[in-house]
Amino acid sequence: MLFSSLEFLFLYLPLCLLCYFVIPWKYRNFVLLVFSLIFYGWEKPAYVAIMVFVTTLDWACGAGVEKYLCAGREKAADRLTAAGIVVNLLLLAFFKYTGLLLDTLRLLPFLSGLPIFHPALPIGISFYTFQSLSYVIDVRRGTVRAQKNPLVFGTYVAMFPQLIAGPIVRYETVEEELLHGLRPDVDRIAKGIRRFICGLCKKVLLANAYGLLWKEIAAGPAAERSTAAAWWGLICFAFHIYYDFSGYSDMAIGLGHVLGFTFPENFDHPYTAGSVTEFWRRWHMTLSSWFREYLYFPLGGSRCSTARNALNLLIVWACTGLWHGASWNFLCWGLYYFVILMLEKTVLKKPLAHCPAAPRHLLTGILILLGWWTFAFDASETYLTLSCALTYFGQLWGSHTTLFSAGDSYTLLRSLPITAVAAFGATNLPRKICGQVLERHPHFRFVLDALCLLGLVLCTAYLVDSEYNPFLYWQF
Fold first, then answer.
1. What gap in Å lies between CA 164 and CA 122, rounded to an integer?
2. Dist. CA 275–CA 281, nearest whole Å
3. Which of 23, 24, 44, 192 is least surrounded, with the fewest CB atoms within 10 Å of its CB?
């Protein structure tokens, strides 16, 4: 079930909130857990068993690790923590990477007879595995106490607002709210509803529109695609994936407010970054934080030699790429950013520091778009194969195509209004302007509420009329 679906908006969510606020408050975690399991198993009930297994495993590991620590048996605690990490990662690897491994091995002549086997990928397994695994590691580090109540821990892992695609929430972030509960007041609920509708509009009205534009350009006849159209296609994909994922994160954070939880921010206007390093401080911040805390720092971080630091970054970015998908293009995407970031840390550090803002932002934008080219062509569709990707890349630089075709003017003019909205929305200006206006004219909040209501009506009309409503990060 998607947040941007009619059954969620007008069936599941109203029923969930009704039960959550009507049933006695002490049962809130039970209600939330039941509805979260329904949400997760809506289309594939069998996936619930996998999530329950991961949850039970990590709850038991956390309890065992703390027991060993209290008894002074640190080596036993280390072994149990390591066992929990290995089992979690093996389970994730089986479902996510078995098909890729077998497909790659079949390329070898003496292994060409290996069977074709692609296990069905449980929805959101990468997110809830990382989230649950961080709890076990934090218990071992002593930063959180093991949760004795399996119902509370199960609610933490399965909580439906952030279950499918994050933000990745660490246990310590919501521990107090899970244990003691923060009964939402009217202002907090209203804030959450506004945030949710804002995210819904980003997903339905902007991300879906740019997804269609990207598909039209990428799937169209390659011989008719100009260099301008190729670059415009990458810009469309960049807006598509940003508004798709940040919109989902906004909806998750908004629902968290409604339910009485505070989830971490996941995006901070990444397309306004003046360097690729800054871009990754602003994009999918909870994933970047997870890899930094649980992989980069344990490897040694930057407090080591330059060569070792480079190796640490290489490992982190290889894992980041493969985390996004079981395809070699995602590994290449991760390694691409490793190279760019290493260049920014070394040879480009001083030139970038003295470079004017405009060219620095332009260069960053081009590098990000080239990264999205690597990311987009993952062969999940017939028009996204390797040969299509290579043809498209050549057309970016004028290979076997014209610089600008007659149809490009119509395409650009047709999408000019939505592009102006998308470019404006990708900056901090909307929030800044609204904040200043509300400070001077508090009654303007009623106008914002009216706009939110209008946005909900428009999104509903779109969802009733259109069948195109994908979600890119669903596969992760």
1. 10
2. 10
3. 24
Residues in the chain: 476
Catalytic residues: 324
Both tokens assigned to 54: 């991961």
Residue type at 199 in one-letter notation: G
Six token digits for residue 235: 């810009």
Cis peptide before 221 (omega within 30 of 0): no
Burial of 22 (0-12, 13-18, 19+ CB in 10 A): exposed
The residue to which tokens 């509805």 are assigned = 35
Is residue 147's pLDDT more than 80?
Answer: yes
pTM summary value = 0.92
Amino acid at 251: M
What interhelical angle do 46-70 and 125-141 show, nearest 10? 10
> Exposure string (b/e) for 334-369, b if CB count within 10 Å is 16 or more?
bbbbbebbbebeeebeeebeeeeeeebbebbbebbb
Q: What single letter denotes the amino acid at residue 117?
A: F
The encoded tokens of residue 44 equal 């594939």
**What is residue 41's three-state secondary structure?**
coil
> What is the SS3 assignment for 257?
helix
8 A C-beta contact, residue 48 and residue 33 = no
**Taking Cα atoms as reference points, which of 80, 55, 85, 56 lies closest to residue 68?**
80
Residue owning tokens 């800044």: 432
Q: Look at residues 176, 194, 218, 164 and name the one whose alpha carbon lies nearest to residue 43.
A: 164
User: In this structure, what token pair is assigned to residue 1?
Assistant: 């079930």
Q: What are phi and psi of 434, to 5 degrees?
A: -60, -40
pLDDT reading at 184 higher than 80 = no
- Distance of alpha carbon 266 from alpha carbon 288, whole angstroms: 10
Cis peptide before 45 (omega within 30 of 0): no
The two three-digit tokens of residue 219, written as one number: 């799937």
Q: Which amino acid is at 449?
A: D
pLDDT in tens, 312-367: 999 999 999 999 888 888 999 999 999 999 999 888 888 888 888 899 999 999 99
One-letter amino acid of 163:
L
Whole-angstrom distance, CA of residue 422 vs CA of residue 239: 7
Half-sphere exposure of 149 (CA within 13 A, CB side): 10
The position carrying tokens 């934008």 is 365
Residue 169 CB partners (closer than 8 Å, separation 6+): 131, 156, 159, 162, 263, 264, 286
**From CA 290, how far away is CA 64, in angstroms rounded?**
23
| 365 within 8 A of 345, measured Cβ to Cβ | no
What lies within 8 Å, CB to CB, of 294 at 6+ separation is: 133, 134, 137
Please give the pLDDT value at position 438: 83
CA distance 166 to 112: 38
